[in-house]
Design goal:
The chain is an alpha/beta fold and about 450 residues long. The protein contains 18 helices and 14 strands. The strands form 3 sheets. It has a 6-stranded parallel beta sheet with strand order 3-2-1-4-5-6, sandwiched between helices. A 6-stranded parallel beta sheet has the order 11-10-9-12-13-14. It has a two-stranded parallel sheet with strand order 7-8. α6 links the parallel β5 and β6. The structure holds nicotinamide-adenine-dinucleotide. Belongs to the UDP-glucose/GDP-mannose dehydrogenase family.
Length: about 450
Amino acid sequence: MKITVFGTGYVGLVTGACLADVGHNVVCVDIDQAKIDKLKQGLIPIFEPGIEDVVKRCVSEGTLNFTTSAAEGVAHGTVQFIAVGTPPDEDGAADLQYVVAVAKTIGQHMTDYKVVVDKSTVPVGTAEKVQAAIAGELANRGEAIDFDVCSNPEFLKEGSALEDFTKGARIIVGTDSERVQEVMQECYAPYMRNHNKLMFMDVRAAEFTKYAANAMLATKISFMNEMSQMAERLSVDIEHVREGIGSDPRIGYHFIYPGCGYGGSCFPKDVKALARTAQDIGYNPELLLAVENVNERQKSVLFDKVNKAFDGDLKGKTIAVWGLSFKPNTDDMREAPSRNLMESLWAAGAKVRAYDPEAMEETHRIYGDRDDLAFCEHRNEAVAGADALVICTEWKAFRTLDFDWLKQQLKFSVVVDGRNLYNPEDAKAAGFLYYAVGRGDSL
Ligand code: NAD
């Protein structure tokens, strides 16, 4: 099957590579020339486990090609995936300019029937806008070519994107057209060998499902963070509570880890956009707003704790920061809690010695060279001579810590653990002031 994917970011590249890997003939289009040049050389512009091998294999087999030519992309695929960014605009709504730009491009170049697939996360009603944008361009050209628009929201997680794409719990397609159903069934058939996980529904329900899913997950995180705040004040260890409630199958263990707030390119913007949609239709989204507020508050927790450890005087202090990406196994720094921490530390006159297994380049791209930020090549280098250590991301490499060793490295025995990785007793036994999240008397 001939498939085109617009956008070679986390979603577009994974979609293109995975579909090419099962034998489809895929062309990926991006407006970013540097990205496409890299991809053509087999260099992957993002960190995503497993993607490099798949891209290299498919490129060498000729099933995956990259271009900046929209005309080439439109001419290629019967199926045209739109997988470009939908960042928040000033009032929190999803900015659809990139999606609409691709739709217009498709309308400008198409010469035969296309199934246009909204894979980007877009608000209810977007498929109609995409439809109108394509129809408008066709009308400008005086053409009447048949096409359909459907919604196929993506549920992959950065860090396990390939696994999620190929073995996800479900694939949702929003359409009322039988023709589109057949095309999408053919597109995803390679993933249906064990059981049919294609769910068809109407377009608006599909668009809404993606937001509802992300809002639900963000709600679980904010709920747990709120519980952790209470646990801290009640001298309760939230980790016992987490295990206690997670064992109930109605609740489950997923997404109930207390921490320093959710980040990334999806939860913050999608909760905001859903709340904006609610307000636009005259409904007050009390729960969504609370989820967002709790998250904002939680993002300042790490700074508050390190500030407290130094009695509010961080001027001239050097803080080691382990983990910069918003979660492990990605280099994505969008809305990462580490950014709130570092920016607050700098504002308070402190310096940062940072280490992350994958996000150093991205951090450098964002903050550039500055005197109060040292980029360290190893976690050990970051703590050497620092005053205190803060853990922002639960990378595997940070899961164990020899507190006696750490004591020799730091000037002060202070650890702020934003992911509850360590046993507070071990830290205390080594004489550390150990601040975790919601761990009762560890405060
Ligand atoms: P991204 O920012 O990593 O990538 C977007 C890409 O689109 C960029 O490479 C950009 O250059 C390209 N682009 C912009 N305009 C273009 C155009 N006119 N033609 C071709 N390419 C163009 O974004 P992402 O993280 O892959 O997210 C894409 C969408 O998928 C968003 O709506 C997002 O909410 C959604 N989503 C993301 C994730 C995730 O984990 N990142 C998961 C599920 C859904």
